[in-house]
Queue: 4 jobs
Job 1
Amino acid sequence: MSRPSKLHEPLQATFSQVLGSIADEQKPEVESYGTRPFLKWVGGKRSILSELVARLPEKYGTYHEPFVGGGALFFNVQPTKAALYDVNFTLVLTYQAVRDDVEKLISLLKMHQRLHDKAYFTAARDKIYTEKDPMKIAALFIYLNKTCFNGLYRVNKAGKFNVPMGSYTNPVLFEEDVLRNDSKVLQGVTITQQPFTQLEVAREDFYYMDPPYHKTYDGYNGGGFDDEQHKKLAELCAEIHSAKAYFMLSNSDTPYIRGLYSKFHIEVLSASRSVSCKAAQRGKENELIIRNYGK
């Protein structure tokens, strides 16, 4: 999707003028399932989840998450109308497997749990690229995610998963109740592989953006997420604002990100980071929550 840059143009209306006319559609109320992410995911939002939930708009249409990752906010909110996206094809396939046939997935995971050792892990890391059955690919993806070092998802330039096995004594691949409850919440949810640049924007909808953070780990798909990608994402957020919809974005607290979103509402949070392989480099760091609504 081609978008002219709007970042250096003045916004045509204040936030209250743009968003004040949104229809009085209440935030969906749903049956609460005991859900949480079924994957480990670098940059997962569980440590700041209460802060994100507290900042959701009161009223919106469809919930969109273009960088779904582990889906911590989605599984907490449990929206009745939702669309999830990610550029990672295998991740998207895995979400679809949880939604569409969770019992078969559980059966395959039990087999991986029983057979797990270093040789099996190494073979599985190669097999995921030759396997043709989508359900088996999904089970391999969860298996590798729960047994690799630090739950890290990283691929090389050829797109192949290259994280070594972790030193877990008895890794737990899955919890049956969590997978079944996650499957219930995913029923009726659109799950699509696509880059954020292809996102269609709709008036009154809500978009939560959790991209690879600026100046931190960006090796999820072998292509990286550089300054130009962050600029394109900021242009998308400006488009969402112009369309009288809502966005909330999480990112690093860097001068570049502050500059891209200077016309929007920026808040600073202290959050745990665990991306680094070195324990000494992990800990609390400031990050930003950016919105086009709220005070």
Job 2
Amino acid sequence: MQKLSRTDLYSLEDYAASRAEFRARVMAHKKHRRVDLGEHLSLFFEDRLTMHYQVQEMLRAERIFEPEGIQEELDAYNPLIPDGCNLKATMMLQYEEIGERRAALAQLLDIEHSIWLKVGEHESVTPVCDEDLERSTDTKTSSVHFLRFELTPAMVASLKDGERLALGVDHPRYQHTQNPVA
């Protein structure tokens, strides 16, 4: 997929005027890009539209309008757009209770490395995790991780031919399989 450039973005004024419509379109789009793996783990598969929205929201929230600041946001979010040979996802661990979340994050060290994706009958793929920075410590994992699943040309061809994905997590303290994913 093509990366975002400054010419793709709305000015702050234009975004304010079109935000409700754009947000509604993106939220409808994102519903079909979420895969829940059990009760507490979700993968949000990113693409150019989801990252466009993310950049626009950051520019709005931070009131960024200088070219250097805009470029910093593009540089931060463009790496999350798949390039045709991979799938990229934001992984979120979600627990409503703060105490439960703290305990779970302490028990789920390296869970991001336990995620797998399988295209049809091809071998499963584990992700490259958190390329931008380390998100875990020796005592707990982060509630958010960024994953990149590298696919072989045969896997890409199978997906284009309509083959379905299976996804799962095989962590000693958290297992779940979603098979197949639409």
Job 3
Amino acid sequence: MSVTAAKGFSAAGVAAGIKQDALDVAVLVSDELATTAAVFTHNQAAAAPVVLSRASMSNGSAKRAVVINSGCANAATGSEGAANAAAMIDAVASRIGCRSGDVLVCSTGTIGPQLPMDLLVPGIDAAIERLASTPESAALAATAIMTTDSVPKQAVVERDGWVVGGMSKGAGMVRPSMATMLAFITTDAIVDPEILDHALRAAVDASFNSLNIDGCESTNDTAIAMASGASGITPDPVDVLSAIEDVCGDLALQMAQDAEGASRVVIVDVAGAATDDEARSLGRTVTDSALVRSSFFGGDVNWGRILGALGSSNIKIDVQSITISYEGVVVFAKGAPVSYDEMALLDLIEDGDFGISVVLGRGPGTARIITTDLTPEYVMFNGERS
């Protein structure tokens, strides 16, 4: 159970025919207007649904529903694409009895094609007819938003009398800056709009914005949080943030584990930066490097590639102050390599997931980046015609 674990929400997922023999339309509906927060991609080629949903959020933070399709990103589709995204919103609003301004829209899939509205609108009708608050309906919705994902991604955190649930999709074209990835978070806690907005943005920074599968920021990245208040409980804002961070962190890790072609997850911890933002930027620079991520695939302790990536950043570094470790074993410090038991360390990282630590010696800033190795399978998968 995920998005329906919180009271006051129902969901559905159906096959409308956008994708062949697969679920491709999902709806998430609150029984009443729900406090809502959202963050979106910074990509300048943002898709039509992002543009519409962003504008909708600027006009109010109370929403009833989200409609999502997979199989077509509705990106770079011009005025027709904008009209189609608006038609998706109108179709949901008319059927659940709310204003169009109370509905958000998301799409994911191939960039360029127009949505097949002759299939999509009947699909939305079918999804609304099947709305339910069951674990099964949540799982169908989580499956319907998938593109190249191999498994649906769901998470739930239970607190004292209230719940946070979530679902997400993303296995490639993932380097969020927003907040192809989508995430939907629900809670039945009573949460003020400002508190929910802060909690979502902080949680996204600590999770999705710290996820880097292939260095490519999508045109469609969106994360939406909705609070129904149906539990009747108003938690401490710190507890709200903690619960949403836990759900988003769980979903981000699931996305890394399901990354296209990846054979291992690598956690890169950066410490000693001037600020947390600086630490995250340096960590992303390291994990953007194809050379670095190729060394992850080979289980190669190639600290030189990490150092080179750090040096390519526009953030000032002091090589003499940097320490680099693999699985807790220091391999570089004070501007020079450090002697270590090479065979013992290779045994630790030859297979499976592992961690790397980069300490900069500049200040209190820290960040954790979740990434994967770069494999031949990834290149082959993404070299195929789409």
Job 4
Amino acid sequence: SHSAGPEPTASELGVAFWNRLSAWCAARNGGNAQGFETVDATLNQINTGSDGLRATCELRAGLRLPPSLSPEEAAAALEALAEDGELALAINAPAFRGDKRSPLVAAFLAAIRAVGGSPKLKLKTGTSDMNLVGPAWGCPIVAYGPGDSRLDHQPNEHVPLADLEHGVAVLSAAIERIAGHIANGRWGGNA
């Protein structure tokens, strides 16, 4: 509608959708802080336009889904929140969590300690190859990498060479440990 008219503008409708989505996430999360078990929305882009007669508002947003919410359930909720707007969804893989008691995790924990590190188990939010191959392959799987993960996907993303060298040492130690257990027929239990 025209800004002088009584109806909300396309921009106002876009903001109203974002507000409904944010409120839905907050209600679903029940006051829990952002993390692996919460659904988290990110507004990535908002574009508005008008040719003088017709106005548009396009939002691009991402949702990080917890294991308890399937992409299909999230899509149904988004459809309901969209009301009279058009919704185009690109669905990725559902969240996946590997077993922290797996022999692969044990091998990495031991390898980190062996090269002087202090291992910490973390739940990684977002999408990785693990989300696809973990359920498909049904085998132990971990995510491991050097550097400060808070710098990932940032303009100043980098890994200090010392962290990279430490990461290579950990991977080498983990591979040697796993190979030794396989060669001795002990793989599958506690590595």
